[in-house]
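Below is how a single chain appears once it has passed through the pipeline. First comes the sequence as given, then the structure the pipeline wrote out for it. We keep one example in the README because the format questions we get most often are answered faster by looking than by reading.
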Amino acid sequence: MERSFKPTPTLKRYMDIRMPDDAEEPILAVPVRTAVREWMVETWSADDLEAVNIKPRRTAMLYGPPGCGKTTLAHHFAARLGLPLLTMKMDTMVTSAVGGTANNIAKIFEDIADQADRCVLFMDEFDAVATKRTSDNQAAAREMNAIVNALLTRIEGFKGTAIAATNRGEAIDPAMWRRFGLHIDVELPGVEERFAILRRYLHPYTLADDDFEVLAEATIGASPALIQQLMEGVKRALVLNPRLNRSIEKEPVFLALLASVKPHPSYEPPPLWDDQQAMTWLEKLNWPPEREERKAA
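Resulting structure:
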């Protein structure tokens, strides 16, 4: 019997469907990696847990700063289960019509109900639809309360695996928060994780370990997304600058990048983005990176 997921027209409209083969393994801080690993083992051990009257947890809330890999983590988790990830498209689901958003939520959960075991549901930017309810009697507040109530009911009755993600954990309605079996703080990467992220996104170029260590220290407080932008910018410069008659020396390359790739203004900038510290860190780097030899097919 065919058990693959079959998207309905409604799900195609309101969902972004990502297949397991497209997933990338995230580089996670140790506490996050441990929590995710335990959840995977719990999911795979459903029969053994139910034999002792415990149901495996099926829902998780991922929260933390933007750019830390919550979407990548959700996709990876689904892929490890061999399932597609269905991400709600908030821009198409949320509507200004009274009752429209709650109706769209109902349609999604009704269409996915018969196939809940064949996919992982991912609700990104969850604070857009799950903010704290208020006693305000204005129309907009009543509508938001109705959306939260509809979500509470649907998530409570959902039989599959569901993951929500938010950059604003404090904004989530307390009752909604309690509906999730796990709450995982996807925090900024530590020095070891930054080292690995730097190496991943500089590939196929490479530096000595000492140089990656310098960059890992210089990017403390940077998100994985910011580090990825930085390293991809370096690779872009190494390829394009000679064609544009520009230097590939580290100072002009990095200073141009640091002027165009920046952390969000609300965050304290990592040392490398501090005008007074940047040159001190750059002076420690051996440059340029070497291109790794392509392996024979």
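Strands lie at 15-18, 59-63, 85-88, 120-123, 161-166, 182-185, 205-206, 290-291.

See the next section for the split statistics.
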